[in-house]
Structures are given as structure tokens and as C-alpha cells.
Amino acid sequence: MTSADSLSSFMPVLLGLVGQNATLRGGVVEQNRDRWQTVFWTGDAWDEAESLASQAVADEEWVQSGNFAALGVDALVQPDATASAGEPESDLLPGVGSEAIVLSINDQPADQATLKMLASVLGRYLSLQRSHQNDTRRLWQTTQMLQHAAAWQQLDDDASLLNSMANCACEVLNCERATIFLWDKRTKKLIGRPAIGIESGVLEVEDNAGIVGEALQSKSPRWWSAGGTDEGRVNRRIDRAQNFTTRSLLAVPMVNSRDQVIGVFEAINADPGDHRNESFDAADVRTLSELAMHAALAIESYRTRVDLTETRDRLVEQAAQSKPLIGSHHSMEEIRRNATKVAPTDLSVLVLGSNGTGKEVLAQHIHYQSERRNGPFVAVNCAALVETLLESELFGHEKGAFTDASDTRVGKFELASGGTLFLDEVGDMSAGGQAKLLRVLEEKVVVRVGGSQPIPVDVRVIAATNQPLQQLIEAKKFREDLFFRLNVVSLTLPSLSQRGDDVMELANHFLEDFCRQIGRTMPTFSEDARRAMLSHDWPGNVRELRNTIERVCYLTSGDVIRSEDLMMTPSVNRPSADTGWAEDADGNLNHATRAFQIQHIERLIASCGGNMTEAAGKLGLHRSNLYRKMRQLGMPTSN
Ligand SMILES: Nc1ncnc2c1ncn2[C@@H]1O[C@H](COP(=O)(O)OP(=O)(O)OP(=O)(O)O)[C@@H](O)[C@H]1O
């Protein structure tokens, strides 16, 4: 429709071309659907203006009646305005529009030449104005589509995604309904959603049926409007099922980034508006094709997200199952119950227990039961690092922060962001390290060594130690404030010898695991092997048991594991201080070597007054390697 406002300022200027002194009566008459109406008039009114205008447009030539003459305004028009089959034409041809100028000059009908000149200028003005309106509309449509498309990236269920796409189509095309048909190539069906009025909410059609099928098979837009000769192209059965009447329909194929057709986007019942009648037009085809492109990409990226999430969940599940917390002794059941309670909270947990009791396994068990299970689980052994390295390990460092810092390095706190940081052997941390750790736990930001930028970290901390922290606090070796920070909840793992039959449960678990790894049929434990394991005091706890079973698995081959296969050094057979030799040495070289190593390490530690760093130095080992060696030998490493 022509804007009457804009004509009221333009027409006086246009009519001024006729001559300043002429007496003018007349104006512009426009067809609006079935009715003709005057949208601008100057001078006394004339009753027959509308009928003369309609005659001029119909005849496409200059017509006159009484003192008036009329001529249709030039315009670009659709070559076949009723194009009901296939695609609407997008190339417009010169012709007559739906407006006419009706004019009388000095009480005479306006002559042909004058009217032709006026109609031509007015035609150009109106087409410029319409193209401006179209540009404004396209700009608005594009903005709407982009806003919707950005929101689609956040949606995580397909029903919301398809609903949002359909709503967007209704909004930008100004139509009644829209449906997205996704192609199931295997079953040769098009699955349409949303499907208003269909009980299941899903519309299922053959992939070659109707206009939607045509668009899919031809890979090009198809459109239809009622009143033509091709009524059969529309499936009225679906209309009846939905208690609905389709008056116009536009279907465009949806093509993904690999140029594969994944479905069809359908829009139904164009609302008549200022730019079109009740049929979709060429501009709508362009708009829906653009929307279908955004929709296809969003569906593709949604499917990738779903696949990735499923893969991640599977991997997390596998990781959670790869280190199960085995044991059904009541003390372990109690720990499991408490772990389940504390897991969903973000509270700090302190895990206590001797070496090898499973502190890290318990920390992982808590992590995988928590909301953070999809985030990382990062473990740091605080005893293995000297103070300067610990700081850079935990908080990271900037390039050039110190001599060896040739690159920027992200610290474990940052790596664990969104997940859990397991601080093992926290009791061995230096005073400086403790102060820095406390600050990070309180402020929840880290600053890399050599940096100045505070980096927020979202980390749950689970700390562990085999040290009696209360005693360390009294001896001023551990900060009390840090202890309170870490010890919001504490869980204490009993030593393996206190867990009764769990020894056998764990032994069978490890046996099965190692046999599977080396492809060996799982043997059974003889009664005497069972008795030997249950009576052993396992100073190295579960780790020692695991090592024992690993050894058995590799070094034996029978169906039954006997007690001598276990090659366990009975704990009572520790080397005697008097003889410097195992009292009950059985002559086996492995046992004798182990007994000697235990005795040597114990003596050295004693001669250094318990100073592990000094003892490690004398042994020619790094402090962390000494701990590792002691654990291998099944020696207790707590004070
Ligand atoms: N309850 C358990 N179920 C299954 N495996 C366990 C269990 N407890 C310990 N283990 C196994 O024993 C070994 C030692 O466990 P873990 O490292 O968790 O002990 P830790 O107490 O953290 O040792 P450390 O004090 O030396 O750091 C690992 O191989 C672990 O898989």
C-alpha cells in the first residue's frame, strides 16, 4: 500500500510540474485487494475517480470521462501474478501497478503526454519508496533471524530448538504456522515438528509426498496458494487431522554444511500485509531459504553437541568405573555413605589414612559422584615438590618468570577449573606453600608466578595426608587456619588389616583386572593362600596387596594360587636390629633384597632424626623418589 502521508508531501511537488497557474483537480487512486480508494486528492472531490482509475489500470492506457483523464502508474510487476506452481518469479518486468493518476487541468481532462510524464515520475517515486520499505523489512528480518540463530546454539533439547525455529519463521514471514521436516533417509520419511493439533506432536509423511516432498526431491523451493488448478498438490488429510485450512504454503530444502539435504522448512498461510496478498512472494522465498540455512547449521551443530555430550558422558562413566572404590567392610560402607553425602556439596574434604589405603581412589569417588564429574580431576603430590616448584606447579608461571621459565605455564588450579583438585600429602607442604595455598582457597583467584593478573578459579579441593596434622599444628609445622580450611569434612580410611574380608574382595578385583590385561584365565586362591592374605598385616595397605597380586599374575601360571606363590614377606619377619638380618629369612633372593632395603632405609632415616630430605640425599635419591621406593617396599611413610 502507498503511504498517504508520503504522497501528501510528494504530490504537490509533482503536480507543480504541470504549471503554477493551472487549476488542478485530481489525485492518486489505489487498488487495495478488491477495493479502489483515493489515497491523495487536491481540489473538489469527484465521485467517479475510483471507477475511472480501475478502468485505466485494467486497460493499461489513457482513459477519460467528463473533465477527467486517468492513467495507470508505471511499476515493475510479476510476469504471472497467479504463479501457483513451483517457485514464484523473482524477476519483475515493467508494467502497470495498482495505482492510477486521475487529473483534470483547468476543467479539461489532462492530456496524454502530461499524464504519462506524471505517471512515470510517480512510478519511480513509488518504486523507490517500496524498495526502501523492503530494505527496512529485510534488515529487520535478518536481525531477527540472527538473534534467533544465536539463541539456538544455547538450546539443549530438540523440541525447544524446533519450536524456536518455527516461531522465528512465523515472525519474520508473518505467517500462521511453520514446521521443520527432518529427513529420515532410512525409512524414507519426513518427520515434521512442531505439529500443532496432532496428538503425538509429530507429523510423519512420505519423503516424496506433497509440496514438502517436492521441495526435498528437487532440492529447490516450492510454493502453492489456494484457488489454482493444482489443489491436489496439498494433502487435505493432514489439514483435517489438524482441523486447519491451508491457504498458502512455501517449502524450502534445508541443506547442511556438507551440501546434504537434511529436511524441509515449511511455512503455511501468509498473512496479507502491506507488501503482499495472501500468497508467499519471491521475497518470502529468499527469507525462508536464508532461515532454513541457519536452521540446518543449528541442527547440525546441535547433533554434534549431542554426540559430543554422549561421548563425554561415556568417557566419564568409563573413568569413574576404571577406579572403583572396592570394599564392603562396615568401615568402608560408612565412608561410602559419607562420601555420597558430601559429594554434591562443594565443601573441602580432608582424607586421612596411611600410605596406600586408597585416599586418591576415595577422592576420585567423591569427584565422580559430584556435579563436577564432567570437569577435570587433577592430582598434585605436594611432598614431591620443593617450595619454589610447588608454587609454579599449583599456580602456573608467566614466560620469563624465572631462569627455566621459557614458556607460560598454566598451573594445576587453573587446569582443575570446573573440577576437583586433589592435594596429596598436604602435610608435607612447606610453610611458604601453606601460606600461598591458604590465600588462594580464601580468595578463589590465582596469580601466576611472575604475573600480576588475578585469574578466578572454580575448584573444589580435596586434600589428603598420612601425617597426624593435629600434632604438626602443635609443633607449629602446619598452619591451623589452613587445617580448618581443608578439614571442613574429614574422612579417615582404615588400614587394610582392619578391613577383614575386604582383603579377599580387593585381591579378587585386582586378580581379575590383571588377568584381563594379559589375557590370562583367572585362577582361584587356595585356602592356605587365603589364610596367608587374611593374616598378613599389609603395612603397605591396598597398594601392597595390588603389587602382590600383580606379581602373582605375571609370575605364576597355574589354575590355583598357593600361599608360596604370593611371595609375601611376613610382616613379623622384619629385619632384626641385632643381627641386621631377617630372623626368618627364607633364602629367597627377592625376599632377602627387600628385607635389606627396608632395614637400610629405616636406619638411615633414624640416623637423620627423621629428616626425609637428608635421608634421601644420603641415599642418592630425590625426596619424592624415596617416598615412592618406601611405598614399593610396603614401608609405612607416616611419622
Ligand atoms: N578401595 C579401593 N578399591 C580399589 N582399589 C584401591 C582401593 N584402595 C586403594 N586402591 C588401589 O591401591 C593403590 C593405592 O591407592 P591410592 O593411591 O589411592 O592410595 P593413597 O592412600 O592415596 O596412597 P598414598 O598415601 O601413597 O598417596 C591404587 O592402585 C589404587 O587403585
UniProtKB/TrEMBL annotation:
InterPro entries: AAA+_ATPase, AAA_lid_NorR, GAF, GAF-like_dom_sf, Homeodomain-like_sf, HTH_Fis, P-loop_NTPase, Sigma_54_int
Keyword match 4Fe-4S: no
A Pfam family recorded for this sequence: GAF
Keyword annotations from UniProtKB, A to Z: ATP-binding, DNA-binding, Nucleotide-binding, Transcription, Transcription regulation
Transcription regulation is among the record's keywords: yes
Domain Sigma-54 factor interaction: 325-554
Protein name: Sigma-54-dependent Fis family transcriptional regulator
